[in-house]
Amino acid sequence: MAEAGRLRQAIWRQVDPEAYQRDGLSPTNRAVVCIVAVSSIIAILETEPTVEDMAPRAFACLEWIFGILFLVEYPVRLWAEGANPRFRGVQGRIRYAISPPAIIDLIAFLPSLVVPLLPGTANFMLLRLFRLLRILRLARLGRFSVAMGHLSRAVTDRREELLLSLMLAIFILVFSAAGMYLLEGENDTLAFGSIPRAMWWSVCTLTTVGYGDIYPHTVGGKILGGLTSIAGIGLIAMPTGILAAAFSDAFQRTRVARHGDATWTA
Amino acid sequence: MAEAGRLRQAIWRQVDPEAYQRDGLSPTNRAVVCIVAVSSIIAILETEPTVEDMAPRAFACLEWIFGILFLVEYPVRLWAEGANPRFRGVQGRIRYAISPPAIIDLIAFLPSLVVPLLPGTANFMLLRLFRLLRILRLARLGRFSVAMGHLSRAVTDRREELLLSLMLAIFILVFSAAGMYLLEGENDTLAFGSIPRAMWWSVCTLTTVGYGDIYPHTVGGKILGGLTSIAGIGLIAMPTGILAAAFSDAFQRTRVARHGDATWTA
Amino acid sequence: MAEAGRLRQAIWRQVDPEAYQRDGLSPTNRAVVCIVAVSSIIAILETEPTVEDMAPRAFACLEWIFGILFLVEYPVRLWAEGANPRFRGVQGRIRYAISPPAIIDLIAFLPSLVVPLLPGTANFMLLRLFRLLRILRLARLGRFSVAMGHLSRAVTDRREELLLSLMLAIFILVFSAAGMYLLEGENDTLAFGSIPRAMWWSVCTLTTVGYGDIYPHTVGGKILGGLTSIAGIGLIAMPTGILAAAFSDAFQRTRVARHGDATWTA
Amino acid sequence: MAEAGRLRQAIWRQVDPEAYQRDGLSPTNRAVVCIVAVSSIIAILETEPTVEDMAPRAFACLEWIFGILFLVEYPVRLWAEGANPRFRGVQGRIRYAISPPAIIDLIAFLPSLVVPLLPGTANFMLLRLFRLLRILRLARLGRFSVAMGHLSRAVTDRREELLLSLMLAIFILVFSAAGMYLLEGENDTLAFGSIPRAMWWSVCTLTTVGYGDIYPHTVGGKILGGLTSIAGIGLIAMPTGILAAAFSDAFQRTRVARHGDATWTA
Fold first, then answer.
1. Stated pTM of the model
2. Whole-angstrom Cα distance, residue A223 to residue C206?
3. According to CATH, what is the number of the domain B154-259?
């Protein structure tokens, strides 16, 4: 019994990135990363008819293999989490099973099993795409690195400033769309005939994407368009500047936490 | 009488974000934010004929409800501001009534009442758009957050540098447009036949929007176009760098004001 | 004689921004700024036939007035510079006359006088554009502000890093153009038939302008195009990051020079 | 014999940028930079038929001259490297000959000699392009400047953060492409008929290039397109912010290493 407990403990340390005692990822999780990456690439390529038609059996076969791998992995993880003080007992397992990481693990294999059983092809495409959610497992593993700490600290520390600059962006978006609707709405009903329509132009211009499917034709519209483009530069500059200052802070804090001082000389 | 004064005081603290004694917004102002947001989204959607035709009565009805809400709110605010030492008495009220926030509040309901009374539809579209100015009320409430302080301090501290980089942008804009007018003006009169026309291309290129409605065709024009694009990168980099440094300063100053020291260790 | 000297001294302090004893610009130079701005806007508008045809006489008339103003200003400046210790005597005046600011002043009025005397219209367009160089006078005045000091210090301090990132950009430009020439050169001779042609696509993609006049059509070309776009993000990020750090330095140094310490608490 | 050794030492100090005892580049290496730059420009121009047809003999002739120059340079470098303690003796030479810089030097002249000997023109284009790899020699020389140290330190110090933001970009890329495939896949099979196809749109939108060859047509697609564009702004802001903070660090460290203190006042 103690042996089983020790085995479970060892497996838990292998499969749960939070429980791994060394830096980085355990060998098991590294293998999972590879399988998730490969299966995601295959799930992407499979949607392309010209690629799938080359070897439809190979794709189906690979999908079965991945499905079985994830199918086996799920109960192992569920069992191993029993070694986690947070998820002890039956209640703990249920709590684990409804936690977001476990649901992502579930989604990783369920569609592979369900899709072949469905008779029609109505929601076939959508179900297949569910497999792409496996890729989210990579995000979970990244959470435990120092770099992720920096990124998330910088964003959360300055979330209010970032939200305010998003709000400012929405203001400019609405007013430039309204202006364009007034200036060009009557000439080009299809593109600027209403504010929601003009907002498609606005968002393309403010983000400096500029597809060129719609653009102003009158002099007034071009002046407003030019001003909107320049405002777009400001809207890129604002969050970038906020994030730059926030990263500077986050890096400095890590340094202080390590060396006990904010200056490089210490 | 003292009771009325105390009620007015209480209402004033609810409706004036500057007078609210706790952090954030009072419940009343939170409700106002929601109503303004919803009524703005409706004012935007309403301009789209395919949406309005689905339920023209519902839109008209909602508009009436919002109009009445803002109509009721305006005299309440005017009356409650009497508790504000800055706007005491009749003179104070008049000063309040001609202050920008009060005018925005007025615009928030006047068009809803006036539009249905107008016989023709000549300036109908413009009047309806006035309602969108309600959205400016959100800006007023944002002014009292720490984040807004950071943003505005960063921009105002470095307004000269930002203005100079805008001036530099205008220089490059004018000279690239003049160059394109010389190089391509004779081949493509419609697009580059004058400097103002070429400026439309210039602004699209410098801001890296690049609609693609006009672009150079000659070798010389393409070389100038490439140089203008690269200059555009510089024009994005300059304000972004200025703002990044300014935000760094603004955040540091807040920290100093709070902790009495600029370093993290203190 | 001493009176003339004192008058010259006074005029010199008015016309030479470097000699003005107070902050900002002297009233005379502020007037010059306005005249230069107005005459530049007119020189720009004049190239647009639909605008000039509205009042060709008014434009010609204004041009004469501006020409005469600058014609009068030039000898006044030349005479007043005699009060400048650096430009004393005849030799000093000649040295002043061939200095870049004086040449810009000369260009400001010469074309206005020469253009009407020319019989043909061959180089007429080019000569008229020379007047636009007047706008450079604004740049000269900006040089004496603190903000300009920040901008130029940040750029010159990090000119090597900025040049290196420009060199890196040229590397990526050349190799992405060469790659596209190999991948798409045979299919689309007009757009990718040689490296110089493909460089037009490369520069549009790397700077994220993306006119859309040419874009890859093959799978390999699209993959290279995607990688080039992502490299373009890096090429925007690099100079922006360099400038942000440099501005941070430049602002800090100004603070130190003023307050004798680098921290906000001092 | 000692004389030959001293000559070899002197030549080594001239040709090996790492061995040069003063700042910057040796006169020999400066000449090499010029020749490499000129020959690269010629190799680029040569691919343009309209340019090459003007003087095909001159281009062939120049190519021979450059080939001979690099052919002579290679054994000289190989011989001179004997003065380098790291590459002494025959074994050292072999180790030098298979080091990346030596291989780039080899590629710099081999194609010039091999191309004219080949009978067919099958891989002619590709071979000619090999000559462009000469340009990589410039990169090798840049490695020894302070600025390059800043750039590479900033990037390597924050490579994890930069990789994470690249991973985040790939996540958004995949999910926006998958979303567009679901929303527009049936309407526009050519552009959005599979996830790999939709990724071309995604990468163009996220990097804000926006060629405009494909863009969403349905309302849902336009909403997703707008959100993707805004996410693109974030993806530009994130690496830029990381690099800005990293450059700030790298510059500060250089300052500390030079002056022994992190503050400007010391």
1. 0.89
2. 26
3. 1.10.287.70
